[in-house]
# Entry
Amino acid sequence: MMPTSTIPFIRWLSIEPSIRHGSYPERADLLYEYLGLGEQIATRHNKHYQQQLYIKEKSVLLEAVCDCCLPIHWRQLCLDNLYSPLRSLRSIMQSPNEQHQLKSIEYEITTLSHYFLAERQQSWN
# Structure
């Protein structure tokens, strides 16, 4: 029998491609489940593991935001929820080196989100 601690991780991994590829753009609940499972998994691990998990979530969401083939409402939903892994990273990344890494992540998000928000505005005109 599989330990109960691996079940959330397996589910988290199985949802990830659907989030990244917008497989079910009408299913915002999958995105919320993905982020919730990530939080649940992170609480059981050390700081290094938590950082890697939150960075992975950030990457999945940001890749979806930048994918012009996905429906705009899915991309916007992913952008709107980038705060979740970013907030978690802010709480655990405290050393000067980690703070530098965090600033790079924030810069990446800000730069790309402005680009894609501008693209969205242009498509509405």
The chain is about 80% helix and 0% strand.
